[in-house]
Amino acid sequence: MSIDIISSSSIVEAKSAKKINASRLLFDAKEGVIYKTDDYAIFKVHRLNDHITPQNLKKIKNSISSNNLTHLYPIKINRSGEILDGHHRYKVCKDLGLSIYFMVSDQFSVRDIARVNTAARVWKLADYLDYYCQAGHQSYIDFRDVYDTLLSSDGRRGRVGLTKLINMSCSVCSSEGPMTAFKDGKFTFDKKGHLIKVLRHAREFEFIHKEWTSGAFLGAISLALSTKGYDPVKMLRNARKRANYFFPVTTTKDYIDILEPIYNFNTSEKHRLIFRRRYKKSF
Fold it and tell me: What's the whole-number mean pLDDT along residues 41-58?
């Protein structure tokens, strides 16, 4: 199967375009050049761009059927043939037996794929996590293993969100912050780091407080562990004696107000720890 090379400045050149081998094209293609082919086999579905919505598909099919302008809106692929932008257009053209107009791009990042496809589905942090895990990024795989430990027996997680966990575990982040690092594939996770210590200590409250997996509670535990002089054994001993002090609240500050008096029970003023000071510095 051959491919026509079409100048990005003139669609007329398609009539006299030279032919080149499809597999070679993926390596030799130039940025800014529009290509045309009837060889659907060279295209692959990108795992982050595989969401087809019937509504969009029907709308695009009606538009192309009545007035085919796909040569003005070529799909974007990478050098592996994966579709980065234009999955709906590709499927419609394939179903209708039409030629595919496309451009090969080296410029698309994972976040770019998310942006151009928000009309179909807004990407979530879980989408980035799944992608980088499938791509074999070990930090993301290790992080997901830890995240999965928060699953309950019925397959549901506690109220802790990915944002909270990422903020507590991102040891090396870009200057834009942990969320940007996570989305850009620059997230690093230390299996012996702070998040592991937080989850291990929080799990010790499993039979004391049923909301131990909530983001607010984990945030309070994180701050407690970051307070100089904090003793997890003392905290747990006092908490078991005063389990009736625990009740569900919605913010980390509220949980600090519960944990701090429990920790300092029967402790002289000189040796009391004040988590609230840590809270004000950290948040």
Answer: 76
Q: Which residues contact 234 (CB under 8 A, 6 or more apart)?
A: 263
Burial 82-91 (b: 16+ CB within 10 A, else e): bbbbbbbbbb
**DSSP characters for 48-78?**
TS----HHHHHHHHHHHHHS--GGGS-EEE-
CA 193: distance to chain centroid? 21
Q: What is the DSSP letter of 264?
A: T
> What pTM does this model have?
0.55
**What is the distance between the alpha carbons of residues 103 and 79, in angstroms, rounded to a whole number?**
10
In the chain, where the domains are located:
2-116, 139-282
| Alpha carbon distance 240, 227 (integer Å) | 21
DSSP 192-216: TSHHHHHHHHHHTTTTT-TTTTSHH
2-116 topology per CATH: 3.90.1530
pLDDT digits (tens, 9 = 90+) for 80-106: 788 888 888 899 999 999 999 988 877
Say if residues 94 and 38 touch (Cβ distance below 8 Å).
Answer: no
**Cα separation of 81 and 46, whole Å?**
9
Query: Residue 55's pLDDT is what?
Result: 79
User: Sign of the CA dihedral 174, 176, 179, 182?
Assistant: negative
Q: Please report, to the nearest 10 degrees, the dihedral formed by the alpha carbons of residues 67, 47, 149, 179 taken in order.
A: -70
How do beta strands 19-21 and 82-85 pair?
Answer: unpaired
Q: 18 - beta bridge partners?
A: none
How many CB atoms within 10 Å of residue 253? 17
